[in-house]
């Protein structure tokens, strides 16, 4: 009698207890932060450094991670024609989708009209023009010039994402031209990137504490009551973001052959984290690792995702469109459709002007209003109290849009392992 060899059962993934899940921990930290900020504002106002330390830990390595990812991805391909093709496709995609975002933002704010009837006198408001970041207030020529760093060291020291990206692409192309002689350098770059991701994994352990401190400070500083006068704007903007997901991102994902819902579930920890920190930089390394694990080729992730961080501001464009028209409504500024179309064209340019400048949305908004010469710049003070709430929504939208963009461009390039993508999205992210 012949015994059949026993088939080895596939081990089922061990499910973590709910309290060990980072998403739960971040949500708990945010809930405790709201409670502390509301009940003990004196304490909550002192907790801002908790969030700032976490963001600085990420910012400390994000430039090097972009360099390592882009360099290793492009130099490993050794096909500079493919690199150029990916870049062109990505830029075209970014411009089309951000245009749709601006149109949705303008239509929704004009239909709901949350600012009509406020009758705000802009002369009574304090202008924030003196706080505009110099890098956000630049002409198109200066923007092009600012793409190229005076030195590579300066770009890394100042955390200029666009400049780091330009240097990384040029350096990677130089390595690709060397062929096999570049292999030792690529091995070193790969080892450095692995070390940096270890730093990120350690930093993520304090993410719940960071979210707790950031939310506690926000509530303590501005108070829960600050949401009441501007609740209509907050509700309108949240609805606008939902419409963008339903009208734009969901059809794109479906057409590209993957589930938007499953993708958002896969990156849920990063999405929840940016709600607490309002910083997209805080999740860049994690998204790079997860998109690669989904089966997207390293060359595509290394080029498209950093570029998306600079050019694909879906949520920020929704914010600019909604807040600009809201301020016009609140101050009684006449703004016809012709002027709003002009505003849309200006926003397409100015939304890129703050790329690489952390927290530049208010600064770029001020620059946009100054460029239109119709909406009072001083009226920006109206939205300062709820800007943090709005920024959580548009950074959330930016992150989701950037991940969709990376997968779509990867699909166009046939650079996605579709079987692996389907399996990973079906099972969900499993920490190593």
TrEMBL record:
Q: Which GO terms describe its cellular component?
A: plasma membrane
- Record SUPFAM superfamilies: Proton glutamate symport protein
User: Which first-to-last residue range defines the signal peptide?
Assistant: none
The answer, when asked if Transmembrane is one of the entry's keywords, is: yes
How does the protein's chain sit in the membrane according to the entry?
Multi-pass membrane protein
The membrane-spanning stretches of this chain are: 22-41, 53-74, 86-112, 161-178, 198-220, 227-253, 318-337, 344-369
Annotated GO biological processes are: L-aspartate transmembrane transport
A molecular function (GO) held by this record is: fumarate transmembrane transporter activity
Q: Which UniProt keywords apply?
A: Cell membrane, Membrane, Symport, Transmembrane, Transmembrane helix, Transport
Entry's InterPro entries?
A: Na-dicarboxylate_symporter, Na:dicarbo_symporter_sf
Enumerate the subcellular locations listed in this protein's record, separating them with semicolons: Cell membrane
Cite the Pfam families for this sequence: SDF
**Gene3D superfamilies linked:** Sodium:dicarboxylate symporter
Q: What is this protein called?
A: C4-dicarboxylate transporter
Q: What is the lineage of its organism?
A: Bacteria, Pseudomonadati, Pseudomonadota, Gammaproteobacteria, Lysobacterales
């Amino acid at each position: 009698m012949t015994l059949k060899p026993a088939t080895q059962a596939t081990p089922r993934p061990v499910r973590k207890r709910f309290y060990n899940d980072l998403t739960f921990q971040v949500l708990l930290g945010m809930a405790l932060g709201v409670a502390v900020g509301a009940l003990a504002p004196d304490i909550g106002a002192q907790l801002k450094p908790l969030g700032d330390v976490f963001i600085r830990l990420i910012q400390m390595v994000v430039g090097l991670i972009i360099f390592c990812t882009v360099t290793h991805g492009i130099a490993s391909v050794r096909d500079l024609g493919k690199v150029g093709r990916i870049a062109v496709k990505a830029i075209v995609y970014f411009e089309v989708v951000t245009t749709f975002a601006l149109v949705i933002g303008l239509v929704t704010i004009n239909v709901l009209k949350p600012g009509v009837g406020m009758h705000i006198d802009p002369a009574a408001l304090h202008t924030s023009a003196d706080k505009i970041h110099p890098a956000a207030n630049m002409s198109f020529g200066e923007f092009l010039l600012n793409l190229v760093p005076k030195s590579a060291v300066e770009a890394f020291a100042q955390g200029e994402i666009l400049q780091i990206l330009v240097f990384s692409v040029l350096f990677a192309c130089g390595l690709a031209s060397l062929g096999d002689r570049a292999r030792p350098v690529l091995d070193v770059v790969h080892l450095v990137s692995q070390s940096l991701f270890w730093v990120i994994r350690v930093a993520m352990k304090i993410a719940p504490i960071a979210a707790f401190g950031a939310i506690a400070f926000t509530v303590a500083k501005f108070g829960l009551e600050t949401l009441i006068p501007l609740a209509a704007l907050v509700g309108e903007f949240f609805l606008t973001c939902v419409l963008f997901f339903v009208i734009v991102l969901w059809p794109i994902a479906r057409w590209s052959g993957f589930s938007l819902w499953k993708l958002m579930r896969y990156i849920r920890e990063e999405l929840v984290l940016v709600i607490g920190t309002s910083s997209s930089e805080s999740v860049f390394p994690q998204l790079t690792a997860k998109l690669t694990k989904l089966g997207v080729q390293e060359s595509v992730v290394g080029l498209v995702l950093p570029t998306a961080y600079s050019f694909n501001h879906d949520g920020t464009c929704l914010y600019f469109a909604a807040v600009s028209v809201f301020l016009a409504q609140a101050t009684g500024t006449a703004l016809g459709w012709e002027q709003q179309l002009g505003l849309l064209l200006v926003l397409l340019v100015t939304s890129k002007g703050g790329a690489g400048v952390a927290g530049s949305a208010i600064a770029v908004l001020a620059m946009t209003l100054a460029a239109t010469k119709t909406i009072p710049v001083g009226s920006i003070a109206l939205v300062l109290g709820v800007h943090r709430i709005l920024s959580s929504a548009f950074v959330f939208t930016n992150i989701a849009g950037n991940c969709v963009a990376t997968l779509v461009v990867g699909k166009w390039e046939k650079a996605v392992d579709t079987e692996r993508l389907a399996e990973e999205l079906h099972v969900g992210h499993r920490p190593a």
